[in-house]
Write a structure and sequence with these properties.
Elements (H helix, E strand, L loop, with lengths): L1 H54 L3 H6 L12 H9 L2 H32 L3 H15 L6 H10 L7 H9 L2 H11 L4 H9 L4 H12 L1 H17 L2 H6 L6 H6 L9 H31 L6
Helix pairs in contact: 1-14, 3-14, 4-7, 4-8, 4-11, 11-14
């Protein structure tokens, strides 16, 4: 009997030790996690602080003071100079036009294409899906000569139409995102609508499109960031017009030594991206994880 009691006592001691060990490990893991988060946030925030402080300094103050020092005099004129003289206003306007047109075109063509491929199983749709996959495997840089010739012969060169058409026509990833979401929408909804007398366009507009809102939000943010940061397409196909990226690039010329003006332009260009992300962050997160686990 005493041996049994001792055995139970030894087992309870081991359990307590295991719990203590697990608790120490959990605390260490939590501390390590927060250390990594703090370091990551610091690496992201510090450059922004330097840019914000630098954008509010005068030229002499900028060159003669430490990067983290507060401005002696807050020069808000830097933002006006960058916005108007630096052509950022024109760049934002042209970028906004391209983004709105490209996003609308991508949503319409992408959702319709995904609807047809996902819902109508045939040899033709399988062939189209295979061609899309092969197009994704081809490096974009290897096709630029052909794409440039097509754009030039269509009369789209040096106009806003060139980046809009290219953004809509080459976005195969968005089609696959819509197809992934469509695979989770039960086809019984389509069949019930057909029984009630609905046509396929009515099914698309009344059932499919509303249910694709998380995917649309995901595609919108990807498209927005991609076009907003795209320098190559704008610089190649519309060299005489400015977008955000090319407007900042041209600061190297007249404002090459005035870093405070350049920093002000960077802050102005960051604001629209920040607003869009804050407005759509819930939809983006839900869109990215939706469909990752199938029950």
């Amino acid at each position: 009997m005493a041996n049994k009691i001792n055995i139970h006592g030894m087992n309870s001691d081991r359990t307590v030790k295991r719990k203590k060990t697990y608790s120490v490990g959990a605390v260490f893991s939590a501390i390590l996690k927060y250390i990594v988060l703090i370091i990551s946030c610091t690496l992201v925030i510090l450059p922004l602080i330097v840019i914000i402080l630098g954008s509010l300094k005068g030229n002499a103050d900028f060159l003669g003071s430490p990067v983290f020092s507060l401005p002696k005099v807050y020069v808000w004129e830097n933002y006006k100079t960058a916005f108007i003289d630096g052509n950022v206003l024109v760049g934002l306007k042209n970028t906004g036009i391209i983004i709105v047109a490209a996003c609308l075109g991508t949503i319409v063509t992408g959702t319709m294409t995904a609807f047809v491929i996902q819902r109508f199983k045939s040899l033709f749709t399988r062939g189209v899906k295979t061609l899309f996959l092969l197009a994704m495997l081809l490096p974009n840089i290897s096709m630029q000569i052909t794409v440039f010739q097509i754009v030039y012969n269509l009369g789209l060169y040096n106009s806003l139409y060139a980046p809009i058409v290219l953004a809509i026509g080459t976005d195969i990833i968005s089609i696959y995102i819509f197809m992934q979401f469509l695979s989770q929408i039960s086809i019984s909804l389509d069949e019930s609508a057909i029984v009630d007398g609905a046509s396929y366009p009515r099914i698309y507009f009344s059932i499919i499109l509303p249910l694709l809102r998380p995917a649309i939000a995901t595609v919108l943010i990807m498209k927005f960031v991609g076009i907003y940061n795209d320098f190559y397409t704008a610089n190649l196909y519309m060299p005489e017009d400015d977008v955000v990226s090319t407007a900042l690039y041209r600061f190297i010329g007249p404002f090459g030594s005035q870093w405070e003006i350049i920093f002000a332009g960077i802050i102005i260009c960051i604001i629209p991206t920040l607003i869009i992300f804050l407005a759509l962050q819930k939809q983006i997160y839900s869109g990215l994880v939706s469909g990752s686990v199938k029950e």
